[in-house]
Amino acid sequence: MLQPMKTFFAPSSLATILLTASAPATWGSTYLVTTEFLPEDRPLISAVIRTLPAGLILIGMTRSFVPSLGWGRLLVLSLLNIGAFQALLFVAAYRLPGGIAAVVGAFQPLMMLALVWGVERQRPRRLPIGTALGGVAGMALLFAAPGAQWDFVGLSAAGAGTTSMA
């Protein structure tokens, strides 16, 4: 006899759905907020404005210490995932249209597959490669405007940020 699937949230919980939807909506507003509301050509200040409040809230909520053996890993992940990525994200946001940066960001799954192949020696299967390529193609069809400005520094920052996040 089949049992009904359990859900992670109550179907009637509109607040849960709205809260969940707010994360990608907020993340997706980066380029608009950067170009319209943040100080011009200040990517590091913009990165700090974006990450410091959340970091302080998390520290206040957890109040736990990292074991001494975990500091090296924490520092590498912090540098790549927060420090470098956020700074490069804002360099790209100041120099590129959001659509072009979104297309560059869509390469992240391919970069992850390449990293797993290079580091873990696990050759990626065709399905993940195909779906990652399909994602890049889809993003290009949706967001790459024909008259968009291609800025080398912006593209380099977007590519390096995507690699850093991967």
What does this structure look like?
The protein starts with 13 loop residues before the first helix and ends with a helix. The protein is globular and about 50 Å long. It is mostly helical. Helix content is 72%, strand content 0%. It is built from 8 helices and no strands.
Question: Secondary-structure map with pairings?
Answer:
Blueprint: H1 14-27, H2 30-37, H3 43-62, H4 71-95, H5 98-105, H6 108-120, H7 126-143, H8 152-165
Largest sheet report = none
Please, how many helices? 8
Radius of gyration: 19 Å
Q: How would you state the average pLDDT, rounded?
A: 81
Number of β-strand runs? 0
Q: Hey, roughly how much beta strand do the residues contain? A: under 5%
Q: Can you write the helix and strand succession as a string? A: HHHHHHHH
Poorly predicted runs are none
Top keywords for this entry?
166 residues; mainly alpha; 8 helices; 0% strand
Sum this structure up briefly:
This protein has 8 helices and no strands. By secondary structure, the protein is mostly helical.
